[in-house]
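P.,

For your records, the input lines for the assembly:
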Amino acid sequence: MNYLHVNGREIELDEDGFIIDPEEWTEEVARVFAANEGISDLTDEHWKIINYLHEYYAENQIAPMIRKLCKDTGFSLKRIYELFPSGPAKGACRIAGLPKPTGCV
Amino acid sequence: MENATNTLHPGPSFREEVKELIHDFDFGNCLSCGMCTAGCPFSDLVLGLDPRRFLRKLLLGLREEVLSDPFVFLCNMCERCTIECPMGIKMGSLVRTVRGHFYTREEYPGFLQKVVQEQLETGNQMSVTPEDYLETLDWLQEELQQELGDPGYRIPLDRRDADYFYAFNAREIKYYPNELQAVLKIFYVAGINYTISSRKWDATNLALFTGNNEDFYKIQMPLFEEVVRLGAKELIITECGGAFHATRHAYRSFWKGRAFPVRHIIQLLDQLIGEGRLKLDPTVITAPVTYHDPCSLARKEGLVKEARRVLKAFIRDFREMNPNRTDNYCCGGGGGFIAMPEYSKARIEAKGRRKAGQIRATGAKIVAVPCHNCMDQINDITRHFKLGTSNRHVCSLVEEALIMPPGKKGNTS
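Structure tokens returned:
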């Protein structure tokens, strides 16, 4: 089993490094995930996307369409890729504490 | 030895059963030479990955031993072994047949069947609703109007009697619309008469990997019917090896309707560059580029030369991997392996090592990858082995180097 170490706590991850229980997610968890992605400093822009994704998932149990993410947060697709170089599915969703999406992503 | 064999209950019936299921294709001519295992890029990296042993069990009719062999799902069905086999035994077909006929849907590993189910229920593998699909297209249309400086630009939706019907992967709607946008821009510049469908647009078919032909047929047929409904002359498939091979395989195996060619988008790009309808600037991408031959394209569908012609049209420093073309190594994620997270370690750390070494040896900075599945695997490998390379789809490279014809704006951002 994989674990993410956050302030002495062990957060259980799946084989692909996504969180297993979204309830365990905190902002500190997001920071550690982000650091592992090579994003050392989470800006307000990052947080806007991370919080949107986390709340959307809590409500709908599914990741939003990228269209919806852009429309509701006001970011362009290009900007999202600049903020999360590994992309919305594997980068932003992982940091926001969503489980791994199924399908070819 | 005889006693030991007896306890395994060998018998001709299981072997005959499998033989019948693959239309009497004869795998009994196996010489048991082991070239398959020697040719498998992963047999010495992952325990239990031994095609020769699997084939022996099958030939002896050892039903239980075959069905409990981890090989059934560890195998990427990449057919690298078939390249080396002196008798040309198609291991990929054998493995797919065994998966499809001797396991229930509940027994498939990972989330393979979950995705198949979504495809059966919604017509696409990410359960994108028709409203969300059309809204995403509207958005892309607006983005392209701006980028092309052409307020009259329209995405040709459900256009009748077009030359080309373009089908893609649900991920290009849900997560990566920038990739679809690049393709639509290329089509615009080439000025081709094409269409995309409002009803059936996802060309992927995960039942290619479960081997369940009932599901495979049900997922595939609507796409062919839609090509006919819209009267398109050809079906063009996105940069997805699975979708391309599944579509061609289904077309050959089941389709009885009107005949039409099924081509990968690289083959169309090759044609359009050859006809002078796409002009590419050779000074844009100067870093060394290598190309990954996906098994589904090169070995299974013979797409080899077109990719080289496209890349060499604008890449100055092109470097082949070794081996390459139909001899190339699988990325390690083929055959549905990425959809089986229980094997992620074997997929990335063990199998990935082979591809990582191959990429590193080229010294390339960019890896051109014409398959979504290979792309995900190679991205995982790049990260794990810290390769420092950038992995790009061929269309994305072509779009970057596009020379806009006079009168058309289209900044390449």
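Two observations worth noting. Chain B has three domains: 9-103, 119-274, 289-401. Residues 119-274 of chain B form a domain with the Rossmann fold fold (CATH 3.40.50).

Regards
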